[in-house]
Amino acid sequence: MRILFITSTRLGDAVLSTGILRYLLQQNPASSVTVACGPAARELFTAVPGLERIIVLDKMLLSLHWLYLWANCVGCIWDIVVDLRNAPLTFIIPTKKAYRLFRSRAPGHHIKALAAILEIEKIVPSPFIWTTKENKNDAVRIVPDGTPVLAIGPTANWRAKQWRAERFIELIHRLTRPDGILPDARVLILGREDERPTALAIVESIPKHRCLDLIGRIDLLTAFACLQRSSLYIGNDSGLMHLAAASGIPTLGLFGPSPEDRYAPWGSRCSVVRGAANFDEIFPENFNHRETKTLMDGLSVTTVEKQVLELWERVQKD
Q1: How confident is residue 31, by pLDDT bands cut at 50, 70 and 90?
Q2: Are residues 35 and 65 in the same domain?
Q3: pLDDT tens column, 163-196
């Protein structure tokens, strides 16, 4: 059985898609898998069982990346093709069975839309990340047993989705002070190396003996294993938020110019918070994700802290 799985360029969407890949592998054990994805998501799939290869799709002029994909896939007959990118040339890739996610503005979470293409709406597979023994061993070394760990994701792919650093700093102080829910907790900070300037003030605000600065220092699967060893995650709507939710730890997503009904962190131990303005009110006309500054100023530290405490109280009852 040969499966071609074409998933997202963005890390967050790729994380959300892992549940249906796992479902296919459970239904078709011992399959050979080829994954096509963007560069940001490549590491996510390196430990997938039965992985044959990963085709990295860098966007090219004139959409030539689709021709590149076709050239790499046309030489065999696939048993299953899953196309979550609505790629035009997949229609002429030989396959016995194809599942395609067409563009839609239908309401509901993105994970439910993914389940629907496999006609398994009643199951709705949760995201699942495959890791190696080495990833887990590295995580034990990086995040040894000891005081609790508060994981923070202060970045996002758009500046407009980024809560201000000074607000993260104040929130961390409130949660880790002696009367907080995680007194004297270590603080784990994640992000890419090119995102370090965004998070630098947060890193510098935390005493060195409590700061686990992992920005740009570990791969995605090791980051996931470190999240599994953490106590709580708080971060902007981003791929890291979805990675944290998939790890099973309590996860709070901070939302502004993105719709939480579609992209909330998935799972019973997750929650979201936004300011008083809803998505339609906060999302500006002629939005430019490269130039628009933060649209998260309507979300106060007190509002986030309240939601954190509610989430924490709820998961303690699990």
Answers
A1: very high
A2: yes
A3: 999 999 999 999 999 999 999 999 999 999 999 9
Task: Give residue 56's pLDDT band: very low, low, confident or very high (50, 70, 90).
Answer: very high
Domain count, the chain: 2
Instruction: Give the per-residue SS3 of the chain.
Output: CEEEEECCCCHHHHHHHHHHHHHHHHHCCCCEEEEEECHHHHHHHCCCCCEEEEEECCCCHHHHHHHHHHHHHCCCCEEEEEECCCCHHHHHCCEEEEEECCCCCCCCCHHHHHHHHCCCCCCCCCCCCCCCHHHHHHHHHHCCCCCCEEEEECCCCCHHHCCCHHHHHHHHHHHHCCCCCCCCCEEEECCCHHHHHHHHHHHHHCCHHHEEECCCCCCHHHHHHHHHCCCEEEEECCHHHHHHHHHCCCEEEECCCCCHHHHCCCCCCEEEECCCCCHHHHCCCCCCCCCCCCCCCCCCHHHHHHHHHHHHHHHHCC
Same domain, 285 and 151: yes
- Whether the per-residue pLDDT at 266 is higher than 90: the answer is yes
Is 124 inside a domain boundary?
A: no
CATH number of the domain at 170, please.
Answer: 3.40.50.2000
Q: Same domain for 23 and 161?
A: no
